[in-house]
Amino acid sequence: MAPRPYIQPVVDSTAVFKADLFNGKVLFCTGGGSGICKAMTESVMRHGANAVILGRKIDRLTAAAEELSAKTGRKCLPIQADVRKPEQLKDAVAKTIEKFGRIDFVICGAAGNFLAPIQGISENAFRTVIEIDTLGTYHTIKATLPYVRQSKGSYIHVSATLHYRGTPYQVHVSAAKAAVDATSAVLAVEEGPHGVRSNVIAPGPIAGTEGMDRLGPKGPTSISSEFYRAMPVGRMGDVKDIANTTVFLFSDAASFITGQIIVVDGGNEHLRVPGLPYPESVLDPESVKAMIKPRL
Ligand SMILES: NC(=O)c1ccc[n+]([C@@H]2O[C@H](COP(=O)([O-])OP(=O)(O)OC[C@H]3O[C@@H](n4cnc5c(N)ncnc54)[C@H](OP(=O)(O)O)[C@@H]3O)[C@@H](O)[C@H]2O)c1
User: Fold this and answer.
1) Which residue numbers are catalytic?
2) CB of 206 closer than 6 A to ligand 1?
3) Is 62 in the pocket of ligand 1 (CB under 6 A)?
4) Within a 10 A sphere around the Cβ of 280, how many other Cβ atoms?
5) Could you tell me what percent of the chain has a pLDDT over 90?
6) How far is ligand 1, taken at its centre, from the CA of residue 61, in Å?
7) What pLDDT, on the 0 to 100 scale, is given for residue 296?
């Protein structure tokens, strides 16, 4: 195997952006208790903002909030809420205003995913992903918008790239994320004149996350190692790559950027090595069971 002459570095946002960039600002982040959204929250806090993180598992949220505060010296409020329930989001927004008095930035990141073919996925499972990703995003926007208008703030929706083409076993998430992308564009156009911006970050494969653990191919097969090697920048994504994009998009340096989808995937989209062997994976799901974690 030929060695890589260059591998793009992973850097901290503090090496590039001012430390006090977000002083006095408040972030409201769904899905902020884990993975990519936790890293996004940490980076915004590192630049001076206080934050609220939401999810269903309060123990994990509380531990994450303590860790984020300890690492950044800013305040982080954990709130248990299910994004499928609009009243729980309204309640969370009320608690945020009571504690911090404002909302400047919103990250809509809560999501569910697993691998399942169209024929095998239950109606209930399909609906659940649409409810978390798409309706959850809408509920979050609806609950926060009056305050984001006041602060002339900004939204980031965490989407994906898998719906740009037909990704097998991802019908539920493809439908849900396509709707998230469309929602962000409408939000940008409707709210732009009020001073609100809205953009989407579409991460590629990000190492060490729940998403990759569930969806990435496993095992020492040639196709899975080819998938991991096929990254034009020379490495897998890091949560810091998404965090750095977040800091830029929330900053005034991005004041002319709204209604956009920013793909952060190391060029992976343009190469597109399939994660699972095709067409074997769809013709004979049993043959790839060992390569994937969840149910088929
Ligand atoms: N990992 C990747 O490589 C990758 C690639 C492309 C896109 N993405 C996107 O990046 C985002 C984060 O993914 P991740 O891999 O970091 O996974 P993750 O750690 O599982 O993050 C998902 C978060 O959403 C929360 N959540 C799920 N259902 C919820 C609900 N009904 N109400 C409130 N919160 C809920 C979870 O917390 P609770 O379980 O406590 O509710 C969890 O904190 C997702 O939008 C995902 O689609 C990830």
Assistant:
1) 159, 177
2) yes
3) no
4) 12
5) 81
6) 13
7) 44
CA dist 224 and 275 (Å) reads 6
Q: Which amino acid is at 42?
A: E
pLDDT score, position 109: 98
Kind and range of the H or E run holding 254: none
Task: Give the pair of three-digit tokens for residue 7.
Answer: 């591998």
Long-range own/partner contacts, residues 135-138 (CB < 8 A, 24 or more apart)? 135/83, 135/84, 136/30, 136/83, 136/84, 136/108, 136/110, 136/111, 137/83, 137/108, 137/180, 137/183, 138/183
d(CA 240, CA 203): 11
Q: Whose CA is nearest to atom 29 of ligand 1?
A: 110
Tell me which of 6-10, 137-141, 269-273 is least confident: 269-273
Give me the pLDDT at residue 195, please.
98
Interval between CA 203 and ligand 1 midpoint (Å):
12
Token pair for 234:
């020379």
Pocket perturbation via mutation, ligand 1, pick of 38, 52, 56 by most ligand atoms within 8 A of CB: 56
Ligand 1 pocket test: which of 28, 34, 128 has the largest number of ligand atoms within 8 Å of its C-beta? 34
